[in-house]
Specification:
Strand order of the largest sheet: 3-4-5
Oligomer: single chain
Structural class: mainly alpha
Number of helices: 11
Distance between the termini: 43 Å
Largest sheet: 3 strands, antiparallel
Radius of gyration: 23 Å
Length: 337
């Protein structure tokens, strides 16, 4: 991925180089090979205490490799490589989607008519590409992925029996998690949010989807097709969901290009840290992430050059700057808190 061959000679200018993102994937693959397949674990590559030049640990987690990755990132930025990581979905974007999807002409369930691809009385309006059931499905998937900081392939594999209702609480037992491939996945205890945060509430969204879809067994988010309700063995694919999600962004005049299915995991992490003031330790515990900040994965979710700054730098120490948005629950608006 860099400009130098393995023998130390520079690469010709016409040779295409891999991106920094590709280099990160290569390193992650080697970490898995050394750590899991070869049983070396996640310890930093270092000399054994017994001496004699015996090295132990994971070679991919070494000071040399980490330094190389930092230098490679700096080099890619200098040569003008554009980062391609997914932008974070914000609570403000989810609010726009919530208002659009809950508009009466969108939220109302319309009878299916063969040969029609639109719903309602909008004629051939391309913005009306979905229907009331689609909006409910998307709202439930959005909020679960955002609040639980999940990959969307994890969300789409949720089945009805993975949900347990206790009074007003919904407990989600995730059947699959990339960070816990050997099991021991902690459940997510979901409680209803206040009305001011209804657009972020997975309990309300799940209730609306389950009530309308009448899904009682099988996958919760099934593949949308003609025989939708008769197929409980096929969950919706990530590609299909991404298409629906991007179409939904176009409905609220947001360019969907920089957003992907990873945007909810990143956005949820930032929301819990910035808006809810959760500590890094609590975020890692909630998401089931390692609290060993050796690889600083959580920092990649919290800080990204792609994300919009929460406040202009010039206003950081301005005592007369405008107050932040008042919290509807705690009635606070002081930006110094």
């Amino acid at each position: 991925c860099d400009s130098i061959n393995l023998d130390g000679t520079p690469k010709p200018s016409h040779v295409k180089q891999g991106t920094y993102g590709h280099a990160q994937k290569m390193r992650a693959s080697m970490m898995y090979v050394f750590g899991r397949l070869n049983g070396l674990g996640n310890l930093t590559w270092h000399e054994s205490d017994i001496g004699g030049g015996l090295m132990v640990g994971n070679p991919s987690i070494s000071i040399e490799v980490s330094s190389y990755m930092c230098l490679l990132c700096r080099h890619k930025v200098q040569v003008g490589e554009a980062t391609n990581s997914a932008w974070a979905i914000t609570s403000e974007i989810l609010l726009k989607l919530y208002h659009y999807n809950h508009h009466p002409e969108n939220w109302t369930i319309c009878a299916y008519q063969p040969g029609e691809c639109v719903c309602g009385n909008s004629g051939n309006n391309p913005s009306q590409w979905g229907g009331g059931r689609v909006w409910r499905l998307l709202s439930a998937a959005y909020t679960v992925a955002f609040i639980c900081m999940l990959h969307f392939d994890e969300v789409l594999k949720i089945q009805v029996h993975d949900l347990c209702v206790h009074d007003t609480q919904v407990v989600l037992h995730l059947p699959f998690c990339k960070t816990h491939q050997n099991g021991d996945i902690k459940p997510f205890h979901l409680w209803p949010f206040s009305m001011s945060e209804a657009h972020l509430c997975p309990v309300r969204a799940l209730a609306a989807w389950l009530k309308e879809s009448k899904v009682t067994t099988g996958y919760l988010f099934r593949k949308i097709a003609l025989a939708y309700y008769n197929s409980c063995l096929t969950h919706q694919s990530s590609e299909q969901f991404l298409e629906l999600f991007q179409n939904n962004l176009l409905n609220v005049d947001i360019d969907p290009t920089p957003y992907g299915t990873h945007s909810f995991r990143r956005g949820g992490c930032q929301f819990l840290h910035v808006k809810k003031h959760w500590s890094l330790q609590r975020i890692c515990e909630w998401g089931g992430w390692s609290v060993e900040f050796m690889n600083m994965t959580i920092v990649k979710y919290l800080i990204s050059l792609n994300d919009d700054p929460t406040e202009p730098r010039v206003q950081f120490l301005n005592p007369n700057r405008r107050p932040m948005v008042k919290c509807s629950q705690y009635r606070r608006c002081c930006s110094c808190g």
